[in-house]
Design a protein that fits this description.
The chain crosses the membrane at residues 117-139, 151-170, 190-214, 221-243, 263-287, 307-328, 334-356. There is one protein chain. This protein has 394 residues and is α+β, with helices and mostly antiparallel strands. 59% of the residues lie in helices and 16% in strands. Strands 1, 2, 3, 4, 6, 7 and 10 form a seven-stranded antiparallel sheet that branches. Strands 5-9-8 form a three-stranded antiparallel sheet, with no helix packed on it. Strand 8 (77-83) and strand 9 (87-92) form a beta hairpin. The longest helix has 35 residues, at 260-294. The radius of gyration is 28 Å and the shape is elongated.
Length: 394
């Protein structure tokens, strides 16, 4: 039995500037004397928006659980499709009274603009630095042969595409079209995961080189790493697309991204695993370097680049993602700003550590620059004596 009531004026003050309001008709769906929960196939309810300027849709139901105060709850309900200023589609795994809860702003909210500007500027700088790093390591023959350079090029390609998707795809013209929004979210999900996987490959390579066992795995290391780093994220994204008929990718406010459940399962959980792996590799590498420094045969001159390498590993393999786990509560905005800075400027960090601070890269780049300067014609400079002679002749 399905019933519908006209909108009720139900509001909740969440701050001085935002009211949470029921922005749709309240629809009740139930079977008399039978409690329907945990459905295998979710119930889909379409809501037309009352206030077209409201944002942040939340699918809710009226929770009258015994022993609790009745309230609107999001448990078991997700926004499967959202068309701004028009309608929203909710998917719930039970039958009860449903509605659409949204934020109504009393004044324009501008707090997100500094974060967005920082992200866009950082992504632009990061993209340029990543392209420069790729060009240097592909065009220079001595660098191109190195396994570390091959891994670095794959990582830079993945990060560069991620930044490009963010710059081009996270725009109003893309988020307004449902299919385009889902495509942007899926691509962003895939290339973020591949970037993390290549960071893990780099961490593993550094560890194997530090313990002097890399030659054992060298012949098949790049092929195996490519299959895992490019393939595993593809499998995760395909599964996410297939489950719930692509509705796991939705428009959330001004961005296209994963819904809450798939975000934890298909993104945050793999990120946590990769982060733990990278930090473990980093810890083992540091222990190895300490033991090597105690060795009398360990050259003193190698300490500085190795320390720089450790700093690079820290910036690449954990610090920015640690900030992501801290971005909640009262300090959320601060950590979100730091996360935006560290993640978007990651390309610049890679360029500095792998093209400027790394000796073998400098040894290739500097001679190339000297040759380029030597090819330029040098204008003859007249001395003061020659100038006087020329004046006397005239």
């Amino acid at each position: 039995m399905i019933e519908s009531w006209s909108q009720q004026k139900v509001t909740q003050n969440s701050s001085t500037k935002v009211n949470t309001m029921i922005n749709s008709n309240i629809i009740a769906a139930n079977i008399p004397n039978i409690k329907v929960t945990n459905l295998d196939e979710p119930v889909n309810i379409s809501f037309n928006l009352r206030d077209q300027n409201a944002t942040n849709p939340q699918c809710v139901f009226w929770d009258e659980s015994p022993g609790q105060i009745p309230k609107w709850s999001t448990k078991g309900c997700n926004v499967s499709k959202y068309e701004p200023r028009q309608k929203a589609l909710c998917s719930c795994d039970h039958l009860t009274s449903f509605a659409l809860l949204m934020n109504v702003y009393q004044k324009p909210v501008v707090n997100i603009h500094p974060l967005s500007i920082t992200s866009y500027i950082g992504c632009g700088i990061s993209f340029v630095c990543l392209i420069l790093t790729i060009i240097i390591h592909v065009c220079c023959k001595n660098l191109r042969k190195l396994m570390a350079s091959k891994i670095l090029v794959n990582l830079c390609v993945s990060l560069a595409i991620t930044n490009l998707i963010f710059l081009v795809g996270m725009q109003p013209y893309a988020s307004k079209i449902t299919d385009a929004c889902k495509a942007v979210a899926a691509l962003l999900h895939y290339f973020l995961m591949t970037s993390l996987m290549w960071m893990a490959v780099e961490a593993l390579h550094v560890f194997l080189a530090a313990v002097d066992v890399f030659r054992t795995f060298e012949s098949h290391f790049l092929l195996t790493s490519s299959i895992v780093a490019w393939g595993v994220p593809g499998v995760i994204v395909i599964i996410t697309l297939v489950i719930n008929d692509t509705n796991n990718y939705v428009r959330i406010e001004q961005v296209c991204w994963l819904t809450k459940g798939p975000f934890y399962a298909a993104f945050l959980a793999p990120v946590a695993i990769i982060l733990l792996f990278n930090l473990t590799m980093l810890f083992l590498v540091i222990l190895r370097l300490i033991s090597m420094q105690r060795d009398k045969h360990f050259p003193h001159e190698t300490r500085k680049p190795r320390i720089l390498g450790i700093v690079g590993l820290i910036s690449m393999f954990g610090l920015s993602w640690v900030l992501a786990f801290l971005a909640f509560g009262e300090a959320a905005q601060v950590f979100q700003l730091l996360l935006a800075i560290f993640n978007t400027l990651q390309g610049m960090f890679i360029f500095i550590f792998y093209c400027i601070c790394k000796k073998d890269a400098r040894d290739v780049i500097c001679p190339c620059l000297r040759k380029e300067n030597a090819r330029r014609p040098v204008e003859p400079i007249q001395t003061s004596e020659n100038s006087r002679t020329a004046e006397t002749n005239t």
